[in-house]
Amino acid sequence: MFAITEPEGLSLRAKEDGFEFTAGKLEAGSLRVATGPFVLEVARATLDDLVASARLEGGTPRIVALKAANAELSGVKVRGPVVLPDRVGAAPEDWCLDPLATADGTIKAQIVDAHLMFDADVTVPVRRGEVHFNEAKVEHIGPDSRMGVSRMGIYVDAANGRSYLYQFTSSPVAGVQFEQRGALLTPWVSDRGSLRLKEFGEGLLRQGQVGPGIGFTEQARLLLDRTSVTGFLQLGDGKFAVPGVHAELAGRAQQRNVVRVHSEAVGRGITAELAALSARGALLKFKDMQFAADEVGGALTLKLFVENKQVRFEFEAASLKVTGLRLA
């Protein structure tokens, strides 16, 4: 349902298979579109300089094209399951995380009552899109532990030995520089290795390596239920693309596109908030509709959580401002 509440300057013109209508300003609300497990809702939309075409299908008008110079949307919500690439037939080029290539920030985690290993405060800095594990800190009572990455996966070296948090399912792994040991086959690690977020993230997505527990050891899954996380990432400018969504992020120089993450228990879910989105050339495909926009700005929240062993998402936008909106 989509209820038009306050049209201004509305005019209609009959066409062979329907009609065209224009409006200097149109306000509408209560949009709800559902397709399979996915649901899109818009509480309110205001469109300026609107031109739209509708076609009659079985006596019911259906909008087939739309243009608006400006649009303001509020109460936007999208929810559904996280669908892996092999289930949607995504091509490798459908995944692009360029903004991570120059991201800067810090992620902090607190492991509480982690009886399998230790209680710990973990700090992982991100510099120019890379995590250098030599700089990561795992602080706790007694000698601090060290994080690193080997050909087997991401690990923590503690007093009681090495424990793997995340194990790689194949090799080589995109974006990973493995640990290096000292000369003469010494057991001491001279370099803990590094991870480039863009290449690593794209590689996991293309392989379908996103899901509850995929890659995580049993010990790590237990720890994640006791691990809280806070942190931020200043994203860089560049192309962001996942199946159905494409955009060019811009505004790093103005400190836009800063993502803040938080979770009381990572094993049950995590929230990412983007208070000042700035994107250009946006494209969104939903059901049989394709939306495009010249520029998009606003505040977004994305929640990922596990429900009945299925990773689900909830996307919310309290307000969005769009220029050059098009629907085809």
Radius of gyration: 24 Å
How much β-strand is present in the residues?
over 45%
Shape: elongated
Beta-strand segment tally: 24
Q: What is the number of helices?
A: 3
Query: How much is the average pLDDT?
Result: 87
Stretches with pLDDT under 50, minimum 5 residues: none
Structural class: mainly beta
Proportion of helical residues: under 10%
**Largest β-sheet summary:** 16 strands, antiparallel
H and E string: EEEEEHEEEEEEEEEEEEHHEEEEEEE
**What distance lies between the first and last C-alpha atoms, to the nearest angstrom?**
19 Å
**Domain count:** 2
Give your account of this protein's structure.
This protein has helices spanning 85-88, 197-206, 218-224; strands at 3-4, 11-15, 18-35, 38-57, 60-81, 96-97, 104-111, 120-126, 130-132, 137-139, 146-149, 153-158, 161-167, 176-177, 180-181, 189-191, 194-196, 227-234, 238-242, 245-249, 258-263, 269-286, 289-307, 310-327. It is mostly beta strands and 328 residues long. The chain has 2 domains: 1-81 and 285-328, no CATH class; 82-267, no CATH class. It has a 16-stranded antiparallel beta sheet that branches. Strands 9-17-14 form a 3-stranded antiparallel beta sheet. A hairpin with a 3-residue loop joins strand 11 and strand 12 (153-158).
What is the element layout, followed by pairings?
Blueprint: E1 3-4, E2 11-15, E3 18-35, E4 38-57, E5 60-81, H1 85-88, E6 96-97, E7 104-111, E8 120-126, E9 130-132, E10 137-139, E11 146-149, E12 153-158, E13 161-167, E14 176-177, E15 180-181, E16 189-191, E17 194-196, H2 197-206, H3 218-224, E18 227-234, E19 238-242, E20 245-249, E21 258-263, E22 269-286, E23 289-307, E24 310-327
Antiparallel strand pairs: 1-3, 2-3, 3-4, 4-5, 5-24, 6-19, 7-8, 7-18, 8-10, 9-17, 11-12, 12-13, 14-17, 15-16, 18-21, 19-20, 20-22, 21-22, 22-23, 23-24
